[in-house]
Amino acid sequence: MKLYHYVHCPFCVRVRMGLGFLAVAYESKVTPYDDEATPLRLTGKKMLPIMEYNDGQAQNESLDILKRQDVNDLLGWKHLAEHESSLNTLLDKTGSLVHSLAMPYWIWTPEFNDSSRKYFQTKKEVKRGPFKDLVKNQKSFVDKLDLILFNEVLSELKPFYKSDKVTIMDLMIAAHIWGMYVVPEYQFAPHIHAYLMRVKAETHFNYHEDFWK
């Protein structure tokens, strides 16, 4: 199987974490952000991640990809069903803040070249405004994010999110806030960092793996 993904994308990260947790082998295909032809060819829309199966079929949607692989329900999907509405609200809030903070830095990682960097920045600034202004407003974003992490994540760790063992909810949360590691000025609260490291260990996740090939 081949996984087409962006290194920075939280929905792609959650799939990589899930496949690592489930010990599913796959070929990693990091896709340039300005490559529209590949995802359109595979699924008819520019949206990653995409899993291309051995029979030639291709599938979008991170959770659908993981559900197909998790035949023994090791990720505890019933927990997601119980808390999906509140979790999605949490991810919407954290995701918006993380993106505003991390996007100006993501474009300078090895994932991007001049062409894909310009494509990404032009597209994202339509929604979020100039990246230079995002950096100027960094403290406001950080204050809001830290408040959410303290009140809505840290308070629910048992030691995983609402559970004593890792579930799909942890992958969804960790994949979103992992992006903050790219922001040099940001420091995670110790317990949040420890939580992310627990998820990393459980999922055998290596964010930088594709950069070192």
Describe what you observe in this structure.
This protein is an alpha+beta fold and 213 residues long. The chain has 2 domains: 71 residues, Glutaredoxin, CATH 3.40.30.10; 126 residues. Helices cover 56% and strands 6% of the residues. The protein contains 9 helices and 4 strands. It has a 4-stranded mixed sheet. A hairpin with a 5-residue loop joins strand 3 and strand 4. Helix 1 packs parallel to helix 3, helix 1 crosses helix 9 and helix 4 packs parallel to helix 8. The longest helix is centred in the middle third of the chain and has 30 residues. The two termini are 18 Å apart. The mean pLDDT is 96.
Summary tags:
6% strand; 9 helices; 2 domains; alpha+beta; Glutaredoxin; 213 residues; four-stranded mixed sheet
**How many domains would you count in the coordinates?**
2
Helix content: 55-70%
Largest sheet at a glance? Answer: 4 strands, mixed
In whole angstroms, how far apart are the ends? 18 Å
**Proportion of residues in β-strands:** 5-15%
Biggest sheet: strands side by side, in what order? Answer: 2-1-3-4
Number of helices: 9
Mean pLDDT: 96
**Uncertain stretches of 5 or more adjacent residues:** none
Q: What gyration radius follows from the Cα positions, in whole Å?
A: 17 Å
Brief digest:
The protein is an alpha+beta fold.
Write the layout of secondary structure elements.
Blueprint: E1 2-5, H1 10-22, E2 27-30, H2 37-43, E3 50-52, E4 58-59, H3 62-69, H4 77-106, H5 114-128, H6 131-136, H7 138-153, H8 168-177, H9 190-203
Parallel strand pairs: 1-2
Antiparallel strand pairs: 1-3, 3-4
Helix pairs in contact: 1-3, 1-8, 1-9, 4-7, 4-8
